[in-house]
Amino acid sequence: MKSIIVPVDFSEQSEKALKVAATIAKKHDSELLVLHMLELSPAIMSESGYVSQEQVVHLIKIGEKRFNDFLDKPYLKGIKIIPIIKHYKVFNEVSEVAEKHEADLIVMGSHGTDGLQEIFIGSNTERVVRTSEVPVLVIKGDIKKFKPERFVFACDFKDENIPALVKAINLAKAFESKLHLVYINTPGDEFLSTEDIYNRVSKFLNLAKLGLEVEIYNDYTVEKGVLNYSESIAADLIGIPTHGRKGLSHFFMGSIGENIANHSNTAVVTFKI
């Protein structure tokens, strides 16, 4: 794992993400690209949206001072830190930084289980999750030592999910986690017989050329199924696929994928299809 991006806003939540990223970086000798998005207040902008160069320079200097203070942490000693200050559209900037530095992972903080509140103003965390080509690890709460032993990956085992599963397998190897694959079977239109599920899973694994076991878990909704199954095996990490700008994968119709991230007390990692 060469490089890891950590967007920060100097909040307690972003520091929790930074701690986890530091743990991963130390283990893999990775560099940390700590990214702060400069919020430009409407009060300092003209009607045209123009901000003078002097004002931007002043804000950057303030940001640099806060950056230096924020990064002066014992747990960051010995890690190569690359501080980056950007402004304007957070989700575009994060993707650009990830592409430029060939980042392997983005680690972001969440404000808890009441919703995936943004660590930036607006809805940028969700947009980063949806648009990022690299996996996004959303940290829930204060994790003293990030060492996910049990990693759940849930999907509908349709062909489009193969790239996401391959990324999940690689990440599980990097984290030295045991990967648990699960299909959530629900009543109603999405219900499949056991035989139908086995046929779909078998076709999927054959196409992916993978010899893995898949659990079938029955529940009333996909969200409840993923969360309840993860709790039943004491999972440390939950992986879900996303469709990027088109919304979460068909398996997680509507806002189910966001709800899993929102309501899970466990860290969640997303993989773009």
TrEMBL record:
* SUPFAM superfamilies (alphabetical): Adenine nucleotide alpha hydrolases-like
**What region holds the UspA domain?**
1-140, 150-271
What InterPro entries has UniProt attached to this entry? Rossmann-like_a/b/a_fold (IPR014729), Universal_stress_UspA (IPR006015), UspA (IPR006016)
State the superkingdom. Answer: Bacteria
The family annotation for this protein states:
Belongs to the universal stress protein A family.
The protein, known as = Nucleotide-binding universal stress protein, UspA family
Species source reads Flagellimonas flava
